[in-house]
Amino acid sequence: MGKRKKAAKKPSQPRRRAPLDTAFTCLFCHHDKSVTVRVDRKEGIAQLVCRVCDQRYQSKVNHLTEPVDIYSEWIDAADAAQHDAPAVRPAAASSSRPVAAAASDDDSDDD
Ligand SMILES: [Zn+2]
User: Fold this and answer.
1) Domain count of the chain?
2) InterPro entries, from UniProt (predicted)?
């Protein structure tokens, strides 16, 4: 018995100062990590941009704001915008009962 391979031990990962996640999935083009958020605390603004479809969003930040906060704000804003927009999508026919017709205009004048 000569050499025996030691169980490969995973080298401990170099400790790097991982910044918080700043790349997210785009709501619009659905590319993974195509959305980046830059928080500029000096200016007090954050800029979100999708490098694939060029969606942009800007918001104010404070010292506690993290990129993910901007991202969720963007989701909310996009969501709200979608609700505001005229419904283009086909109605999910859940209740397709006929509109209660207003009183028929049949003039039934007896007498
Ligand atoms: Zn996109």
Assistant:
1) 1
2) Elf1, T_Elf1_sf
**What is the 33 CA–ligand 1 centroid distance (Å)?**
9
Q: What is the C-alpha to C-alpha distance for residues 15 and 1, in angstroms, rounded to an integer? A: 37
Q: Which residues of 9-23 are buried (b: 16+ CB within 10 A; e: fewer)?
A: eeeeeeeeeeeeebe
> Is 1 among the domain residues?
no
Whether 96 is in a domain gets the answer no
Using the mean position of ligand 1's atoms as its centre, give its distance from the Cα of residue 59 in Å. 18
Evaluate whether residue 29 is within a structural domain: yes
